Give the backbone structure.
Amino acid sequence: MEENILRVISPLAAEFVPDGWSGEDEIQNLDGRGMMPYREQIEQAAAEQAVDLLAYYDGPDEVRENLVSIIPSVAVQDGKLCGCTAITYRQDLSEHQWNALFRDIAGQYSDGWGEGFEQRDIEVDGGILNVHFWQPDGFEMVPIAVSSAEQTVPERPRMELAGHDGNIFAILGRAAKLLRENGQNAASVEMRRRVTHCDNYYKALGIISEYVETELSVPRDLPPDPARRKKEKQHGGEVR
C-alpha cells in the first residue's frame, strides 16, 4: 500500500540566555524569525533528539493502523523557523481523526517529547537557547504539504458557485464535504485552515477554488500567481 507524508507546521519560541548572564532581564525571548541565525544548531539538536511519536500514540486502533510514523523536526516557512511534524500514513483519515491526531501531537509537544526538548541547552554563539515546540498562546498546527512516492495530484471535484448560498462558511462546508467524499480528507483539513487565515472573502474563494473545481479555478497546468501567493503569506495563509 502506498505511503503518504503530511507535513504540519507549528510555531516555535525560544529563550536566549547570554553567557555570563546575571539576571532574568538579560534573557531574550525569540520567535521563529529571531531563531533563524541559529537554524543549524536547532536543526541538529532536533535531529539528535527526534523520536517516533507514534510510539506514544494512544488513540483509536483504526487510526493507529493507518499511521506509519510521526517524526518531529524543524523547517523554514515564510522566513521563520517552525516546528515541522512529518506524519507518514497509509490511508487518509477523516477530518475529525486528523484534528484529533493534531491535538495528540500538540500534547506531546506540551507535556511529553517537547517538554524534554525545551529543557535541552542548545549551545550557540554567545550563549544557549531553550526551544519550545509548544506555547500557551498562538499555537496552531497547519498542514502544508502532502506527498507520496508518485507525487500524484488528485483530480479536483467539481462545485458550482453560481446559484448557491454565497456565505463563505456555506461554500467552505460544501467544498470540504466534496473533498471528503472524494477521499481527500487531508486536503479538506488543509483547505479549512488556509481559509481561516484569510483576511477577505475573495481570497477565501480563491483558496477554495484551488481544492475544488469552481468557476474561479485556474487550470493546474498554468503557473501560480506569485504576487497573490506573496500577499496570502503576508496575511497568515499557508502555501500548499
About this structure: The chain has a mean pLDDT of 85. The two ends are 24 Å apart (CA to CA). Strands lie at 4-11, 13-18, 28-30, 67-77, 80-89, 122-124, 127-132, 142-148.
